[in-house]
Amino acid sequence: MSSNIAVNEIYQRVMEHTGFYHDGLPTTGVTEAEDIRNNNEYLYKCIKYSAVINPEQINATAIYELSGSPCIYFTQLNEPNPRELAKLHKLSWNHGSAPMLWVITPEQVLLYNCYSQPRKQDENDPNRHLIESFETTESDLNRMNQFASRLQIESGEFWQWEKAKQIDRQQRVDSVLVKDLNQAEEKLTKKKN
Length: 193
Prior knowledge:
It contains eight helices and eight strands. By secondary structure, it is α+β, with helices and mostly antiparallel strands. The chain has one domain.
């Protein structure tokens, strides 16, 4: 079995197990990148998510929107290295919309906080932004279902977990940019005086 087929099968299993797919199809709120790219009905989403679905950037397989706002970018990788994970996190943070990125590999599902500001040293420790990781075993997928399933997210239960509380809107790219601009203004004002 080729590694791409294995990743696709694991991806389907994870998505079904967590309620984002049902009988192999995306549930309400989940849009596959392939549909966004190829369906004129999704022109708005094609523009909105161009960096998210671009194979040279985040390359999301699907996007989950909650109440019309992006909540999770789902992507599949065979054997990600720390540099690749750090790059995906940085691109997701820089996009500034979805609070989470799920990286699905044949062995693990990695849930990243996309509101956590990237640092230069992330290539050495991309797990700094990790909310939680799960093995793709049946028992760990059951644990994941109790933590971050679609039902957990939509009901608000997910957001009550201590690990989920680290998703802080004040660390989003736009908030950080405003803080940086304010600090620059203060420095310039002090130099003038």
